[in-house]
Specification:
The chain is mainly α. Helices cover 49% and strands 11% of the residues. The N and C termini lie far apart (78 Å).
């Protein structure tokens, strides 16, 4: 529920026994008041008592009014900061904060933290990743406004209750109508907030991380991929439309190299080299992580490369993810493939149908995919009964030979 605090700052004159008039700021907070001396004198005839400021008769008096407005703005900021952290605020607390007496350690707020994080990380993280962080920021702004009646909360006010409340909000309140977060989508938002709070703890902006007892609850999702028959259906289909033809070629190149969409578009002629044994390789790095990637080229990939001009800056023409997805949707319908075609699916196809199902060791697959952890690649080792049957057939063959 929103708090109904009252706050005001008014400037008044106080006549001293000497006859001089000094300006004071009268601070009023929740029926409490106090006065703060400005240490400035003024002639009563130059003062507008009704407006609580100097009369604008000269440049000097106008500068004095600007000074008073600066003081007012600082008092407002101190009040707003105190309001974030304390239930009971009085006028003297605002005065002491202004004077810097008994001032507590600077209290950072959650939205300040996220803005600070995003400003620093925008030169480090990929644009797509930063877009996701900004979406999490939008969720937090709406959640805080709805449940706390303010635009921000200080970090030390974040509790386990705040974390679980935010999770429920993300699950039940979509940013766009009819676009509710899935379980794993909600967990991604929680994971991003958890990383930011750990960053705050490492920087000693909070004493305790509210995520210490919180467990992320991702649901395992099977990685979809094309079977060999589905891959052949796309390969054998000829398209007269130039856009569809190009989308098909880019998609198949990813199926035979495992390159992500961003890495494929950034591929340059110098990224292709021929080894001493005559085999052509791709030598690049992942846009997402910067991890080096080395992929030996299969003849299918080499055939696609030969279509494109190797003298231009980039091998493949620039296009957008939206155009690719639109083209893949049409291709899947024409080829009667029920799966949702994406570049992620092409990458998964390379990991399973092209390499894993043909006996390539999981360590080699991990290197070619640019994974930083083998456990990420191990997901593909669980995918098909065909692979299990193949492995057992090889085992049976070895046992027969031993006998």
């Amino acid at each position: 529920m929103e708090r109904k605090d009252t706050f005001g700052v008014h400037f008044v004159l106080r006549r001293m026994p000497t006859g001089r008039c000094y300006v004071y700021a009268r601070i009023v907070v929740n029926k409490t008041k106090c006065e703060l001396g400005m240490k400035q004198q003024i002639n009563p005839s130059d003062w507008n008592e009704a407006k609580g400021c100097a009369k604008s008769k000269s440049d000097e008096l106008r500068r004095f009014n600007s000074y008073l407005e600066e003081v007012r703005a600082k008092l407002v900021r101190h009040y707003q900061q105190l309001r974030l952290g304390d239930e009971g605020i009085n006028a003297d607390m605002v005065k002491q904060a202004f004077l810097n007496y008994d001032k507590p350690v600077e209290q950072h707020s959650l939205m300040w933290l996220i803005g600070h994080h995003n400003e620093i990380m925008k030169t480090v993280l990929a644009p797509g990743t930063m877009k996701n962080y900004r979406t999490t920021e939008s969720y937090l702004q709406l959640f805080i406004k709805k449940h706390y009646g303010t635009n921000d909360v200080i970090l030390r006010k974040l509790t386990f209750e705040f974390i679980t409340g935010f999770e429920h909000y993300v699950r039940t309140q979509p940013l766009k109508e009819h676009d509710q977060c899935t379980n794993n989508g909600a967990m991604k938002h929680m994971e991003r907030l958890k990383k930011i709070m750990k960053w705050a703890k490492d920087n000693e902006w909070v004493d305790k991380n509210p995520f210490e007892l919180y467990k992320l609850k991702f649901k395992h999702k099977e990685r979809d991929f094309l079977s060999l028959e589905e891959l052949r259906a796309i390969e054998n289909k000829e398209f007269e439309n130039e856009v569809l033809k190009q989308v098909k070629e880019l998609f198949l190149f990813s199926c035979y190299t495992g390159l992500a969409f961003a890495d494929l578009l950034s591929l340059k002629p110098e990224n292709i080299f021929t080894a001493n044994d005559g085999m052509k390789w791709i030598r690049t790095s992942r846009a997402k992580t910067g991890t080096p990637v080395y992929v030996p080229l299969l003849k299918q990939a080499i055939s696609i490369l030969s279509i494109y001009n190797q003298s231009s800056e980039y091998i493949f023409p620039v296009t957008t993810n939206q155009n690719i997805n639109r083209g893949l949707k049409i291709i899947s319908e024409i080829c009667e493939i029920k799966k949702h075609l994406t570049f992620h699916l092409a990458r998964h196809t390379f990991a399973t149908t092209i390499t894993l199902m043909n006996g390539v060791p999981i360590e080699s697959i991990s290197k070619m995919l640019g994974h930083t952890k083998l456990s990420t690649t191990m997901i593909y080792a669980k995918v098909t009964q065909s692979k299990v049957a193949m492995d057992m057939a090889m085992l049976q063959q070895k046992m027969n030979e031993n006998e």
